[in-house]
Amino acid sequence: MSQPARPAGTATAWAGINIALVKYWGKRDTARNLPAVSSLSLTLAEMGTRTTVTFDPSLTADVFELDGAVRDDPRVVALLDGIRGLRRVERHARVVSRNHVPTASGLASSASGAAALAAAAWAATGGDLAAARADRAFIELVRRGSGSAPRSLYGGLVELDRDSGGVRPVLSAGAWDLRMVVARLARGPKTTSSREGMARTAATSPFYPAWVGSHPADMVEAREAIEGRDLPRLGAVMERSTYKMHAAMLGADPPLRYWNGRTLDALDRVQALRAAGVGAWATMDAGPHVKVLCAADDAEAVAAALAEVAAPGDVTVASAGPGALIEP
Ligand code: PMV
Given this model, what pLDDT does residue 113 score? Predict the structure, then answer.
């Protein structure tokens, strides 16, 4: 029996969030959203964004609904405009999006959001997602939506290159059984957007040049650790990268501190786990949450330790997931 055909002009995409192991912080070109440093991330399976885009001739403007509420978001319209330009489509779109992560809480929903939106819009115009991934103009659009978003187009371990602004898969999700245990340590949106935080750090932190200058060696180290499937080595460079990024932020004027007291409590737990022989390494983004990289076998012990710090239900064990995909 043949599948019922998808109505023309509509598509639904899923994109997982990605957590950077070697971080991106700072831009070398603000207009094109080109990063000052390369980065390396893990796309997660259990957390992300599902978005349906329908190009509808009866609409006189784009309509964007996120988690049940209609919003005005110029970034959504800009991304849709970009796709319309590339695909020569003129119709406006209805966008219905649902986050499976807390929005704007430092859990990177802007990356999965931009990736899912771009993928769904592209597919809704009849485009093939594999072709989109190979299309520089498409990657550029996704990156303008959110600097870390192109990484969510691929699954597993993914690299975003500083020089080209392009993205490439490093290791597929199934090739290394890693876990990222995510402890959500606050509610509500972050205090300073990453866009604003990056600009302030670059403009005022005396540690910013050292962050950028010492970064390439971390990328080399992380690539070697991945090639050798050496988790302690990858964990160590991951922690170094996040602490250096936060050090650069702390040196900004006024200082940027995304951590709260529970962030430090969670970091203590991770250190104690390691002292007890459990392989666990922490990373933090532009928010107070702590994400812990570990082997599948250690995930339960890590989750139990973080549950002593996070509210009930706020610890998620996530595994490596696929890149953005179109759902039937
Ligand atoms: O993509 P943005 O603008 O939300 O920036 C993401 C920055 C960090 O999450 C802090 C680090 C990273 O590489 O993901």
Answer: 96
DSSP for 189-258, please give it.
Answer: --SS-HHHHHHHHHHH-TTHHHHHHHHHHHHHHHHHHHHTT-HHHHHHHHHHHHHHHHHHHHTSSS----
Kindly tell me if the per-residue pLDDT of 89 is higher than 90.
yes
Q: Which atom of ligand 1 is nearest to the CA of 24?
A: 13
All domains in the chain, ordered by first residue = 10-174 (3.30.230.10), 178-319 (3.30.70.890)
Ligand 1 mean position, distance from CA 108 (Å): 7
Q: What are the tens digits of pLDDT across the range 168-186? A: 999 999 999 999 999 999 9
CA of 147 to the centre of ligand 1 (A): 7
Ligand 1 centroid to residue 24 C-alpha, Å: 6
pLDDT at position 231? 98
**Do 125 and 89 contact (CB within 8 A), yes or no?**
yes
How much is the pLDDT for 9? 95
Ligand 1 atom at shortest distance from the alpha carbon of 146: 1
Burial environment of residue 126 by CB neighbours within 10 A (0 to 12, 13 to 18, 19 or more) = exposed
Name the residue with the closest Cα to ligand 1, atom 14. Answer: 20
Q: Using alpha carbons, list the distances in angstroms from residue 141 to 166, 274, 305.
A: 11, 41, 40
pLDDT in tens, 287-300: 999 999 999 999 99
Residue whose CA is closest, atom 9 of ligand 1?
A: 285
Q: Whose CA is nearest to atom 8 of ligand 1?
A: 285
Q: What is the pLDDT of residue 110?
A: 87
> What is the C-alpha to C-alpha distance for residues 71 and 69, in angstroms, rounded to an integer?
6
